[in-house]
Amino acid sequence: MSSNISLKGRDFLKISDFSADELEYLIDLAAELKAKKKAGEYDPCLKGKNIALIFEKTSTRTRCSFEVAAYDLGMGVTYLDPSGSQIGKKESIADTARVLSRMYDGIEYRGYGQSIVEELAKYSDVPVWNGLTNESHPTQIIADMLTVKEHFGKLAGLNFVYMGDARYNMGNSLMVACAKLGMNFTACTNKAYFPDKKLVETCEHIAKLTGGSVKLTESVEEGIKGANIIYTDVWVSMGEPDEVWKERIDALMPYQVNKSVMDKADENAIFMHCLPSFHDLNTGIGKNIFEKFGISEMEVTDEVFESEKSLVFEEAENRMHTIKAVIYATLMEQNNG
């Protein structure tokens, strides 16, 4: 796993902290580690090291991905759920960082404001990894880009369309990644749900240098024309009040990913979603929304979700391989020239 790039000792807080070469390196490293795992080759090269996982917001994929990745690398893991940590309550973020970095070799944080994970990193003596904040979701983005590259064999030049609420972690992070990697990013949604104007301007500048582009449109017809990747996410994020559901449904239903949308995209287009998804009535939230609003599918229809064009479960698996790459690169990988 030689490379001219070394990320040893680096924090992994947001996509914009990394160059295109560094992002490509992590994607390719993840592919290499994935191939080794599929071949039954395991190297517990980080045996004796330990990581702490702080989860102020629970998650199936993020927790399992970090734990399996760490175990494959020979590491020990301590999971701290919302009731298992005193961060920000009885102990300051700064003090938590200084305590945990005396005991652990790496710290993962999944929770609320980006400022929290940034402060953890500021006071920690070991790498801090962002498992999700309101503003950023970098481990998901590396998994998404690995999935795209596996399918198309490349990233640069592809047309990536995000439909739905593009104001928060997924819309923001995907736009930055696409700009850095020379992809054409489109946010196709109600204008009230466009990404932050300042971030859009930053990404437009980056895209000019990489050969990519950034576009915002309310027109589904215009947005999905020639799309290679159609991406969406839940319309209401964890922790938001129930009252926002009606507002989001009214505003975003025109941007639901359904068969008509997929049919109007490129004939080889794929569908992606970071999960969980409300595509049927098999969840408590899904049933509740049906009872209140009479809809059985939200951001994506079950037909699309279960179609051959859907790569959502490949994408979910890749969380583990890319998180393993982030852990490996920041704790072990050296510049081997």
Fold blueprint:
Blueprint: H1 20-38, E1 50-55, H2 60-72, E2 76-80, H3 93-103, E3 106-110, H4 114-123, E4 128-132, H5 138-152, E5 159-163, H6 169-180, E6 184-188, H7 197-210, E7 213-217, H8 220-224, E8 229-232, H9 244-252, H10 259-264, E9 270-273, H11 284-293, H12 302-305, H13 312-331
Parallel strand pairs: 1-2, 1-3, 3-4, 5-6, 5-8, 6-7, 8-9
Distinctive features:
337 residues, alpha/beta, five-stranded parallel β-sheet, 44% helix, globular
Radius of gyration: 20 Å
What low-confidence regions span 5 or more consecutive residues with pLDDT below 50?
none
- SS class: alpha/beta
End-to-end C-alpha gap: 10 Å
- The averaged pLDDT comes out at 95
Helix content: 40-55%
Secondary structure tally: strands: 9
**β content, as a range?**
5-15%
**Strand line-up across the major sheet:** 7-6-5-8-9
Order of helices and strands: HEHEHEHEHEHEHEHEHHEHHH
Shape: globular
Report the sheet with the most strands, covering strand number, pairing sense and barrel closure.
Answer: 5 strands, parallel
Task: Give the number of helices.
Answer: 13
Structure description:
With 337 residues, the protein is α/β, with parallel strands linked by helices. Helices cover 44% and strands 13% of the residues. The protein is built from 13 helices and nine strands. The chain has helices at 20-38, 60-72, 93-103, 114-123, 138-152, 169-180, 197-210, 220-224, 244-252, 259-264, 284-293, 302-305, 312-331, and strands at residues 50-55, 76-80, 106-110, 128-132, 159-163, 184-188, 213-217, 229-232, 270-273. The strands form two sheets. A five-stranded parallel beta sheet has the order 7-6-5-8-9. Strands 2-1-3-4 form a four-stranded parallel beta sheet, sandwiched between helices. α5 crosses α6 and α5 (138-152) crosses α13 (312-331). The longest helix is centred in the C-terminal third of the chain and has 20 residues, at 312-331. 48% of the residues are buried. The mean pLDDT is 95.
